[in-house]
Amino acid sequence: MDKKSKVIEIIKIFDKLYSDADCTLDYKDPLQLLISTQLAAQCTDARVNIVTQSLYKKYKTVYDFANADLSELEQDIKPTGFYRNKARNIKETCRILIEKFDGKVPDNLDDLLTLPGVGRKTANLVLGDVYGIPGIVVDTHAKRLSNRIGLSKNEDPVKIEYDLMKIVPKERWGKFCHQLVYHGRAVCNARKPKCEECAILNYCDYGTERISKG
């Protein structure tokens, strides 16, 4: 079975298991999603959601973040880790949004990638979930599962992104990546994947090899 056919079968199964798969970060507007995704670097979405409950009550607009006291902002986001870099990036991002984009989050990849701390993963998530522009979001789950299933042999997230773009139907790019996250958390975790319980075992290179070896 070629990779495109494999993906179609996996999507059919995922649609039964994770029909409601969506972004696991809590947000109410494009700016909040942009900032939450920056905070999620090397941090769990669950922890980010805890931090942002109070963060977005304190900083309500792009101007609030741009004018924030840096040391105070650092403390506000400290539980997410790497808080000095994140605070600096967030403050600078918001300054640029005000100066270059009328205070709005851009709706295209090129402009988003000019923002501090924003890479392709963040940009594609914002484009897909906020603006409905299809994009492949390669986070740790998508990377791990793509390698294990056999959809990509690459380790570099950008190369994995391009590999998936070739085999996943464009209209399913965003949804498929969210479903990979759900499956990665529920079944295909990093340390002890539950291959015996996996609904897509027959389409997974790693799982079938592991089961065959006993």
Keywords:
214 residues; mainly alpha; Endonuclease Iii, domain 2; 2 domains; 12 helices; 0% strand
Description:
The chain is mainly α and 214 residues long. The chain folds into two domains: 3-21 and 136-212, Helix-hairpin-Helix base-excision DNA repair enzymes (C-terminal) (Endonuclease Iii, domain 2); 30-131, Endonuclease III, domain 1, CATH 1.10.340.30. Helices cover 61% and strands 0% of the residues. The chain has twelve helices and no strands. The protein has helices at residues 3-17, 30-39, 45-58, 62-66, 70-77, 83-101, 109-112, 120-131, 140-149, 157-167, 173-186, 205-212. This is Endonuclease III. GO terms for molecular function: 4 iron, 4 sulfur cluster binding; class I DNA-(apurinic or apyrimidinic site) endonuclease activity; DNA binding; DNA N-glycosylase activity; metal ion binding. Residues 39-186 form the HhH-GPD domain.
User: What is the CATH T-level topology of the largest domain?
Assistant: Endonuclease III, domain 1
Number of helices: 12
Which class of secondary structure composition applies to the elements?
A: mainly alpha
Q: Any low-confidence stretches, pLDDT <50, length ≥5?
A: none
Number of strands: 0
The CATH architecture of the largest domain would be Orthogonal Bundle
Order of SSEs, N→C?
Answer: HHHHHHHHHHHH
Share of helical residues: 55-70%
Enzyme class: lyase
InterPro entries: DNA_glycosylase, Endonuclease-III-like_CS2, Endonuclease3_FeS-loop_motif, Endouclease-III_FeS-bd_BS, HhH-GPD_domain, HhH_base_excis_C, HhH_motif, Nth
GO molecular function, one term: DNA N-glycosylase activity
Catalytic activity: 2'-deoxyribonucleotide-(2'-deoxyribose 5'-phosphate)-2'-deoxyribonucleotide-DNA = a 3'-end 2'-deoxyribonucleotide-(2,3-dehydro-2,3-deoxyribose 5'-phosphate)-DNA + a 5'-end 5'-phospho-2'-deoxyribonucleoside-DNA + H(+)
